[in-house]
């Protein structure tokens, strides 16, 4: 691509020189006037080449820099008040023994009540009371992101939520315990699958927000 652009510019310059020589022989235009005219066109050609190179370099840099950062956070990007609000007390949990009593060598380690694996992503798995938020319910939780109800817990009754984080450190540094309004985006039907979670997290229109919440290692 670059060689093609340079070749075209050189051909243009040679054409200008050839045209100028012919015009000089026919019209008697002074050599200095022709020289000035050629120099001006040569400078314009170089400027054009410089702008083209700069544009190509910028596009290359953008393509290597990864996803474009959103101008707004997910909290600011939508009018969440259009959805039903529900006040809850939310805590954080992990897949480890401190929260579930399970160790990594347990066959059920990292598996939720619904059968899907715990996940911290744009759409993360959360635990709730199914009588309040049925399995599969999609919530928007300010400062956490989307939560898909996939788990339950003996202490998670009524208006309580448990939000999944990868480590205990993440729980304490990023959340702790909060009482806040969450927004019901979609009420669940009692089930959720890995394929449904994958589809939500791979939604192309939402990728600009994904790194805002995603911490899972791939």
From TrEMBL:
Stretches of the chain forming a coiled coil according to its record: none
Source taxon at top rank: Bacteria
Domain 3D: 124-185
InterPro entries for the chain: 3D_dom (IPR010611), Resuscitation_pf_RpfB (IPR051933), RlpA-like_sf (IPR036908)
Family matches, as Pfam families: 3D
Alphabetical keyword list: Signal
Gene3D superfamilies: RlpA-like domain (2.40.40.10)
Protein's name according to its UniProt entry: 3D domain-containing protein
């Amino acid at each position: 691509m670059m060689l093609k652009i340079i070749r075209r510019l050189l051909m243009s310059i040679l054409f200008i020189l050839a045209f100028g020589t012919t015009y000089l022989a026919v019209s008697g235009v002074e050599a200095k006037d022709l020289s000035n005219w050629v120099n001006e066109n040569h400078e314009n050609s170089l400027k054009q080449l410089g702008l083209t190179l700069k544009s190509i370099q910028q596009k290359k840099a953008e393509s290597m820099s990864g996803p474009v950062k959103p101008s707004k956070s997910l909290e600011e990007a939508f009018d969440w008040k259009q959805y039903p609000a529900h006040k809850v007390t939310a805590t954080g949990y992990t897949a480890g023994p401190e929260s579930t009593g399970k160790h990594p060598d347990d066959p059920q380690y990292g598996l939720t009540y619904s059968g899907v694996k715990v996940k911290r992503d744009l759409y993360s798995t959360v635990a709730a009371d199914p009588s309040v938020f049925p399995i599969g319910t999609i919530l928007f939780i300010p400062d956490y992101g989307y939560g898909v109800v996939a788990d339950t817990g003996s202490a998670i009754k009524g208006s309580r939520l448990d939000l999944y984080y990868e480590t205990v450190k993440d729980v304490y540094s990023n959340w702790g315990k909060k009482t806040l309004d969450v927004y019901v985006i979609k009420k669940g039907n009692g089930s959720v699958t890995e394929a449904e979670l994958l589809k939500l997290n791979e939604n192309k229109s939402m990728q600009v927000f994904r790194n805002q919440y995603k911490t899972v290692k791939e």
